[in-house]
Design a protein that fits this description.
It holds the Pfam family FERM_M. GO terms for molecular function: integrin binding. Belongs to the kindlin family. The protein is an alpha+beta fold and 641 residues long. It folds into four domains: 88 residues, Ubiquitin-like (UB roll) (Roll); 238 residues, Acyl-CoA Binding Protein (Up-down Bundle); 122 residues, Pleckstrin-homology domain (PH domain)/Phosphotyrosine-binding domain (PTB) (PH-domain like), CATH 2.30.29; 107 residues, Pleckstrin-homology domain (PH domain)/Phosphotyrosine-binding domain (PTB) (PH-domain like, Roll). Helix content is 29%, strand content 23%. The strands form four sheets. The protein has a seven-stranded antiparallel β-sheet, with helices on one face. A seven-stranded antiparallel β-sheet has the order 20-19-18-17-23-22-21. Strands 2-1-5-3-4 form a five-stranded mixed β-sheet, covered by helices on one side. Strand 11 and strand 12 form a beta hairpin. Helix 8 runs antiparallel to helix 15. The longest helix has 19 residues. It is globular and about 95 Å long.
Length: 641
Amino acid sequence: MVTPAKYGETSWQLSVQVDQKEGDESMKFKMRVMGDLHIGGLMLKLVEKISKCDWSDHALWWEQRKCWLLRTHWTLDKYGIQADAELRYTPQHKPLLLQLPNMKTIQMTVSFSNVVFKTVIDICRILTNHQPFISLKLGPMYSKTMKATYDPENGMPMSATSVWFGENPLAESQANLPPAELAKMYQPLSLVDKAVNNAGWLDSSRSLMEQDIQDYDKLLLRFKYNVFFDINPKYDGVRITQLYEQARWSILLEEIDCTEEEMLMFASLQYHICKLTMSTEPLNNSNEPEIDEIEAALSNLEVTLEAGHTDKILVNIFLKTKCFHLCCSSEAEVDRQALANCMPKRLTLRPYKEYWFVFKDTTISYYKNKEASSGEPIEQFHLRGCEVVPDVNVTEKKFGIKLLLPVADGMNEVYIRCDNETQYAKWKAACVLASKGKTMAYSSYKTEVKHIQSFLQMKNLAPPPGQAAPDVETMEMNAECFVSPRYAKKHKTKQLTARILEAHQNIAQLSLVEAKMRFIQAWQSLPEFGIKYYIVRFKGSKKDEILGISYNRMIRIDMSTGLPVTTWRFANMKQWNVNWEIRQVTIEFDQSVTIAFSCVSCDCKVVHEFIGGYIFLSTRSKDQNETLDEEMFHKLTGGQE
């Protein structure tokens, strides 16, 4: 029977499940309510019916709609709740298993009712006392390292605070896994595989419960946006270590591509860090560089986002060389069918020709010889918006630069070969700045040159002059721990050990902090660094393609060849929007360029959040690091669903 209400309204029975403390069974209640009852009043009636204890963390969850009823002044009618609704009175904070960047898993109690953005900020405040752009991600969990941290005395899971600041803080790097365990974790990843993995990022503007995350679910905690602000070794030891760990595992599991020479360089740094970490002697902090020196070094680590406009440079600087080599090709020169089938091999085997090159502002001009440089150039390359890809092998004295130049219908490829390290460092630095619309008069040019030279020095596998090669027979090292399983199979243990030790001699004097920073720096220097891949279908196209999103640009990539088709820079973006009904992203750039695409490998909200997140970061400056404009972040990433 329906009971009449005072004002002629009707009442009905509402089903509410009450989740008690862990270990206690849930209780179900039937509450007789009316539509004008507000949520706060419903909670009060519920608490009066059940046992007296602390219910302050509980809130109502609407199961069918997958939403929290947190506006306690709203009525049941305003929420649209009727007799068929199933509500849960459940704790807002629940246990979660988090796999940290170092692959260690800890248990934390976190908010399941706050949006993920706020939940992650709370996690970061506990773990690092900082608000870096870390986020939560669904992804493969590596069972061999998924061990929660327990107190050795009582056997209970340790709190996050004691884990990070106790006797064994996670500020220290974790030991390398045995080769057999590493091999079980390793899976070769194609671009398509990487695109599928990137679909797992959680929506920052929705809560964990709204995204079907339950108690004790396992999530990855990872640095999401590859822009690292104000790293200070004096205060950010945990953050530096976790950045290093995320970089280390991305190398070991080949989540990011690198050459064999680079793999050995990373192995030597890991070996050095492992030696310093496992040393029985206490670390002498007096040997660490002064903070101002480290801050200067960190200028190499920062990825400075491009502004919409560049400052006017009043000085013209010329970069000339008389012995430069060029291999230039475009679709106009190569048969289209051959391009599709043999492009990498055809292009790398084409002969190089010597020309006289002049680099002025953001343009490269080349001439038949020096004498002809006073006249018209054979051709000019405008580098603004281009991709700069290193093609280097220090051991073989190969110093090449590949330029991917944007044109109306795609990208033209230009291969430039330098004679030596010094020439390569100057030209690559100039190309990198020119791609951002900056000239060699820009203040960071010399720093960029030094950064490239430092990177080349680390890649040099030969021992320093006057220093003998290490005696492998007397050294104890499990070399396969420091390289990916695929590289470990290519070399015998003794040979691999010798090559790692030779490379180690170039960085043996680095302190622990310096070594980790060098590793991060080298990680950032890889061509694929920071690029997240997604499978999309561009409007008007009949095939799926790969879209790469980095901190400053978007790259359209042919799925069959893995080669870039064209690049669009965020600095040239005028506006973008999402049609949430058909799940299509539309972006408008300068010069009347408009693209539209739908996402195949993930929800378009994932891609929208990456674009909006990087645009948001481009508005931040160093003096804004301690305050975060959360409202602006959600405006740029939240969408209008």
